[in-house]
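Hey all, quick one. A colleague (J.T.) asked me to put the pyridoxal-5'-phosphate job into the tracker so the inputs and the structure tokens live in one place instead of scattered across chat threads. No bug as far as I know, just bookkeeping. Sequence used:
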Amino acid sequence: MSVPFVDLKAQYLTIQNEIDSAIAKVVSETAFISGKYAKAFEDAFAAYLGVKHCIACGNGTDSLEILLQAMGIGAGDEVLVPANTWISTAEAVTTIGATPVFVDNHPETYTIDIAKIEEKITPRTKAIIPVHLYGLPAEMDEIMAIAKKYHLKVMEDCAQAHAATYKGRKVGTIGDCASFSFYPGKNLGAYGDAGGMVTNDDEIAHKARMIANHGQIAKNTHAIEGRNSRMDGIQGAVLSVKLPYLESWTEARRKHAKRYNELLTDLGIQLPFEPSYSRHVYHLYVVQVPNRDEIIAKLKAEGIDTGIHYPTALPFMEAYKRFNHQPDDFPVAYKQMSQLLSLPMYAELTDAMIEHVCKSLKQVLQRASVSV
Ligand SMILES: *Cc1c(COP(=O)(O)O)cnc(C)c1O
């Protein structure tokens, strides 16, 4: 049995007619960039989250950059970023001229370790970017309290956490502003690159909208220099079709995670952690295993694709060698980067697929423990 890591085609087939006609409509109306389809999605997504503003843009990385700029962050400033995340979170900080300062991850939640934030704050620190990694909300109450104490801005990176909740609140509505990616493989994915910025702050919203569209406040009236980061009409139309399904797709992911948990319990491997006050949306189902290379190869031989998120934590990447970080600086992220393993996860997985993955993983682990 073959179990791909993600299967975008399987999802497309469940909504094919709606998607095809939505795309055909955009093309027949030549509403290619921004325009009514991007606007309709902005309104729908803002209403879904219960936030005042949603500004559609080109992708999730742009969205992080533009929001940082809109908050007035730039050269000379420092921004706190978790050590284990996708590179965009840190890249955005560098792109706007500021410096990313890494904070180790918590060993069980994988999100930024709230006990290690304050020691990284300096007079130059201007913001924290909590990432709701793998779909689990970061510890937002504590993060907001620290931010308040030191007068820092908080921008949530929600790229992996559409529909996740923290103490009853949707992620993206807790910080000063939040960034979403609609990259095709995300829990709410477009059919190309797309991103979204959300906030309740009128000033951040106004600036972000200007920056994303060449600094224009009206056609040919440029209040500032901005850039080009707009959402394609086709992406807006696809996302508007998909948004109403997000809840049922999220429930399916959660059901699959529960099944994985049941079948993988008692194997001595670390399973995902979900505090009772959070709703984890399992963008990724991540476990920690010994002999990872051997396990990946054996699963591959059984037709099962897996992923690693991420094989190198940011402080240890060549891209950040200028900081000269050592393993001891981020002991948790360093230790975990050789053990993290992401199992197949998407709404359309079947019970039989999950059972096949768990049975195969169990066999490798038991064989491995015998050979030790
Ligand atoms: C995917 C992702 C992004 C960037 O999104 P793009 O749309 O690919 O630019 C940013 N942060 C995190 C945590 C992500 O997973």
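Adding what we noticed when we looked at it: The pocket of pyridoxal-5'-phosphate is lined by residues 59-61, 85-86, 88-89, 131, 157, 159-160, 181, 183, 193, 195 (CB under 6 Å). The first helix runs from residue 8 to 14.
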